[in-house]
């Protein structure tokens, strides 16, 4: 049964957004809608222009018998700046300030709309980079990693603070907590990461950088490669941070626990991803 163009465009757009970074053949759409390849090509041109104009990603078409179309979700510079500004406003609340200069984020990172936006924003940073797996540490980084992995269409792995019998044999490393200078241990199942894998590290918060540096050590133990690291929020830290090249969406510029004051601004995401110097 043939499907009208208006209906094809709606269904095609939905399909691409549900199957990011996956090559879909023209034959598949032709059989799905009972339409000729020439009609499908015209539809793809409309969808491609719409994605570009709305700043939600790019649709790439590959010619030939083995070709097709692939949707890479991503944020335009304008949409990225707007989202980061919204995140600043959401976090800039003195009631979120916790002892030690930490910020309460669990409610925000439990909201599906924010997780979808943050996941796509972080995935945009690595859209042109070969990524095999997304890594995070239990527990607050898990929903972010899951969202990023969905938009990159790659698996994610969870580093544990202690071994679980269901994980099988594990690799463990000791690391120094950047904020407390205490020695801690983290573990990762041997089955979750292959030698030579390209890894993106994500987490909810960075202060001294000890936890993320520990994940760097684990990646080396597996013989894998670090692609980059991105966090939702960067906290203020005096001294030498153990991680030097981490991307942050927002930054807690100043905290005053005594007066319950907090000031939040943009992180270095825009500068690193869009090469836009903050004014």
From TrEMBL:
Pfam families: Pribosyltran, PuR_N. Gene3D superfamilies: 3.40.50.2020, Winged helix-like DNA-binding domain superfamily/Winged helix DNA-binding domain. Residues 109-253 form the Phosphoribosyltransferase domain. Residues 4-73 form the Bacterial purine repressor N-terminal domain. SUPFAM superfamilies: PRTase-like, Winged helix' DNA-binding domain. Keywords: DNA-binding, Transcription, Transcription regulation. GO terms for molecular function: DNA binding. GO terms for biological process: negative regulation of DNA-templated transcription; negative regulation of purine nucleobase metabolic process. It comes from the Bacteria. PANTHER family: HYPOXANTHINE/GUANINE PHOSPHORIBOSYLTRANSFERASE, PUR OPERON REPRESSOR. Homodimer. NCBIfam families: purR_Bsub. Belongs to the purine/pyrimidine phosphoribosyltransferase family. PurR subfamily. This is Pur operon repressor. It comes from Candidatus Limosilactobacillus merdipullorum. The lineage of its organism: Bacteria, Bacillati, Bacillota, Bacilli, Lactobacillales.
């Amino acid at each position: 049964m043939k499907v009208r163009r208006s209906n094809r465009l709606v269904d095609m757009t939905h399909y691409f957004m549900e199957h990011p970074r996956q090559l879909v053949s023209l034959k598949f759409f032709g059989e799905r809608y009972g339409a000729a390849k020439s009609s499908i090509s015209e539809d793809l041109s409309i969808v491609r222009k719409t994605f570009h104009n709305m700043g939600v990603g790019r649709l790439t078409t590959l010619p030939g018998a083995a070709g097709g179309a692939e949707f890479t979700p991503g944020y335009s510079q304008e949409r990225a700046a707007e989202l980061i500004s919204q995140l600043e406003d959401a976090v800039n609340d003195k009631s979120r300030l916790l002892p030690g200069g930490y910020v309460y984020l669990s409610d925000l990172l439990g909201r599906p709309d924010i997780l979808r936006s943050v996941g796509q924003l972080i995935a945009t940073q690595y859209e042109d980079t070969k990524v095999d797996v997304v890594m995070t540490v239990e527990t607050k980084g898990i929903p972010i990693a899951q969202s990023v992995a969905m938009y990159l269409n790659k698996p994610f792995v969870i580093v544990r603070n202690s071994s679980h019998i269901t994980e099988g044999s594990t690799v463990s490393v000791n690391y120094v907590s950047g904020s407390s200078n205490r020695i801690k241990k983290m573990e990762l199942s041997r089955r979750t990461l292959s030698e030579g894998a390209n890894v993106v590290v994500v987490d909810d918060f960075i202060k001294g950088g000890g936890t993320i540096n520990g994940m760097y050590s684990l990646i080396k133990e597996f013989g894998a490669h670090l692609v980059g690291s991105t966090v939702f929020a960067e906290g203020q830290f005096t001294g030498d941070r153990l991680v030097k090249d981490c991307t942050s969406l927002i930054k807690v510029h100043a905290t005053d626990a005594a007066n319950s004051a907090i000031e939040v601004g943009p992180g270095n995401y825009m500068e690193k991803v869009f090469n836009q110097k903050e004014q």
